[in-house]
Amino acid sequence: MIMVLKNSVICNKCKQEIESKHRHDFIECKCGNVAVDGGHDYQRVLGSDYTSSSIYDDGTHELRRKHLTWGKNYDENMRKLPTTQWIPIKDMTSEHINAIILGGFAPEGSMMRPIFIKELEYRDFKNK
Question: Is 111:40 a contact under the CB 8 Å cutoff?
């Protein structure tokens, strides 16, 4: 099974790019011509006049770290943010990634856990 790193389309009518970030994240373009759903779990597109802008996993960590995102809901002082900030893994702090792993937010068996671990290893290797 090929993993979807970015589940998105561009509406050919209003030219808006829309992206579904997580499972059951149903997003519709501003003119209502096209919608996308499924995040990284599945792809569902409603409408027919669109161009796919999705990105699929090629097995490299470079592509994964650039296009996979994680939703940040709290600031560093644990204050709730008004909206979720979607951050590419490459732009997350190592402290944030460690907190996700240790806090159980990317549990054993999840798609993201090995990717987060690989990211920390990648950073350690780059820093040597």
Answer: yes
